[in-house]
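If you are new to this repository, start here. Below is one unmodified record pulled from the training split, so you can see the exact layout before writing a loader.
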Amino acid sequence: MSESAGKTSRAAEVAANVAGATERRRVQSIREPLSPGAYVEYSVDDQPGVVERARAYLAGAPCEPVAPRRAATVMLVSEGKPHYRRFESPLAGGAPIEETVDAAPVDVFMLRRASTMAFTPDAVVFPGGGMDARDVECAVPWAGPSPEQWGRLMSCTEPEARGIITAAAREVFEESGVLLASAPEGAAPIDERGDHWACEREAVATRQISFGEFLRERGLVLRSDLMRLRSHWVTPESEARRYDTYFFLARLPKGQHADGRTSEAVEAAWIAPGEALARFDAGLLKLVPPTISNLTSIVAATSVDEAWNTPFDGHVRPHPVARACGEVVLGCEVSET
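And here is the target side for that same chain:
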């Protein structure tokens, strides 16, 4: 059998297996709350190049999967407030749209990434980013569940858990100015100087000092109990740029505010999860699948407490799937570990 025939055979076998599997179990969308054991599939037609790379992967094209980079993202939530919105019309030549949005039970802080960013340009995302080597190597003053406890929850090693939790707190600080830390006795820090820790944020963001050094110099400890694990997503092996991302939820600490002063974003705002999803449906903003799924997980929450207590969605490790109709999507079974 020729190599091309072998590839075609493997693709057909994959498609047949997927078709048979989906007949036996319910296929869930990312617009439904996820949980371990659910089988989820979602379209990626709106993401340039993803479908083409997925088809090549299914056809057996030579591909050495890139090791995914560890990353952390934080859904910073607060009690909802009424908002005045003004934004450009999605229609060419359309007048700007102005509206007042009533308060929702929960708001989440989101950033619109700059169009120059290599990964997901223009997308509206939660604060977050890749884990830095110093997140793992630098001793970080710690309070709350230990890295060992987090490792068991996150299904990773203790050093990895320490680095990921540190990265989550650091990224929130860099991109929003919110500090998930406190004095050792538990008092939440408040920026009394009024500059929102601007100098310290710049020093941490430019790697002049590590986040651990910043905390130690001010007698603060990272508060891991201020975060809850929401979900874990790994970019498919068919992609050249891959991330192994843990999503967390954190309440906005009393006395602090989020400002979105970061070079990676061109816009920042508090928005209700339902409003963000409605704007995505209307073509007014760009959301990627993990963001859509995580917003969906708390869209029905009637309070910040309810959002905080929402169960862990699970580990989502999607891969290319060929449906019986020939459409290529991404899908997987959500796992508990």
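Two things worth knowing about this chain: The chain has ten helices and 17 strands. The two ends are 39 Å apart (CA to CA).
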